[in-house]
Amino acid sequence: MKKKVFVLFPDGVGLRNFAFTDFKQIGENKGFDITYWNNTVFSLKDNLGFKELKIENYQIHPLTPLYSRARKHIELNIYGEKFDDEVYSTYKFPFSYKGLKNIFKVLFIKVLIGLYSSGKGLEFIRKKINNLERKNPKYVYCKNQLEKHKPDLIFCTTQRSTQAISALLVAKDLGIPTVCFVYSWDNVPKAMQVVETDYYCVWSDLMKREILQYYPFINDEQVFVTGTPQFEPHYNTALKQTKKDFFKQYNLDLNKKYICFSGDDETTSPLDQYYLQDLANAVRSLNAKDYNLGIIYRKCPVDFTPRYNAVIEANKDIITVLDPVWRQVGNMWNEVLPMKEDFKMLYNVCEYSEFVTNVCSSTVFDFVAHNKPCIYYNYEQPQLKRGIRDIGQNYKYVHFRSMPSDNAVVFCTNKKDLKDLVKQILDGNLSNVAEGLKWFEIVAGKTPKRASENIWETIDKILD
C-alpha cells in the first residue's frame, strides 16, 4: 500500500523548491501517494494538475504574531549573550510605532521580551504559542481535514511561517510524523524557526551543526542532511536554450558580452540602484576601449520600488531588463510566487552571462554552478545618510562566516576598483569559481543534483 504524504505549503516560498522542480515526480516514482496541503492562494490543481487539499482557513490566533516576534528577539538576546557576539542584535527589525494599535503591540512585545529573556522564559513563550494555536479555529479546521484523509506523514516546506503552526500541532496531537525543511541558507542564526517538528531536513552539515547549536531541544537523530532542491534546475540541461534562441527571445545582442546585475530587496540593499549605476559607468568606460558589453538587469522578484527606473532609462543602450517570471497573487511579499518558466530563464541567464554582480545574494551559487564568477559590492555609496542601512552590515552576518576564504567571491571594496575588476574577469585574469564551488558545497551540501531524492529517502526512512 502506498504511503500517503501531505506536502504542506503554509505560504508560497516553498513552491519553487517543491512544486516546480521534479520533487513530486521523484516521490511518485518511489511509490508515494502525494497530496499538496495548500495554504496558499496559488492553486496547484488548476495550474499544475496536482492533487491538493486546500486550507481555506488562514486565521491564526491574534496574539501569535506578537508572541512569535517576542520569541525571535528573546532567542537573539540569548544567542548574543551565549556566543558573546553583537551580530545577533543586527538581525532584529525595528519596531513600527505608527498608529495607536502598533504602539500597544510594541509595548506588549517589549514586556514579553523583558520578562522572558532567558532559557526558561523562552520555553514558556514556545509553549504559549502552541497553546494559543491549539485554541485557534484553524486547529479544529485542520484536525477535521487530517482525520478525514489520514496521511502517514506531513512534510512542511518551510520552518518560518506562523500559518503552519496549528496544522503541524494537529498532526503531532494525532500522532502523525512531521518533517520540516529549513528554507534558506541564513535562516538558522537569524532565529527564523517558527515551527517545531519531529524531524528536520537541512541543506548541509554546516546547517545541521547550526540547528543543534542554536536549538538544544533538537537532537542529532532528528536532523537529516539532504541538500536543497533550489539548485537542482542548474543541472537540468533540458532547460538550456541555444545562445541564438535565448538572445532572440529577450532581444539581446549576439555581438555583446553581458554581465548580470542581480537586484536586491530594499531592506538588504536600500541604495542598490547606485551599484547598478556604477556598473553601467564601468561598462561604458570599457566599451570605449572596444569591449562591447551589455548588462542584464534581473530584479529581486519581491522588489516593486521604482528606484532603478532612472538608472535604467539613462543607460537603456547598455541595460536590458529581464524580469523574473514571478506572479503577484496577493499583497504580501510571500504572495509573489515563482512560475516554473523562471527556472529556464535563470538557467540561461547564468549560462550566457559572463558573470554576476550583486550585494551579498545567494545568486553567487547559481552562477558558480555554471562556472561563472561573482562580484560582491562592499563599499558605501555617497548617498548613505542617517536612517539608511549600510550594506556592509550584511557581510558581518553569521552565514558569511562559512566562506572557505575571502576568494569565494570577488569583493569590490572601492568604487574606483570596479572597472578594473570587471576587466580582469573578462580578460580571464580573475575568478572566484574554484573557491566559490568549495563554498557552495559547504552551504548546499555535497549532492546538489539529488536533493529531492535525498528528501524522499529521508521520508521513507522515517516512515520505516
UniProtKB/TrEMBL annotation:
InterPro entries: TagF_C (IPR043148). It comes from the Bacteria. It comes from Yeosuana aromativorans. This is UDP-glycosyltransferase.
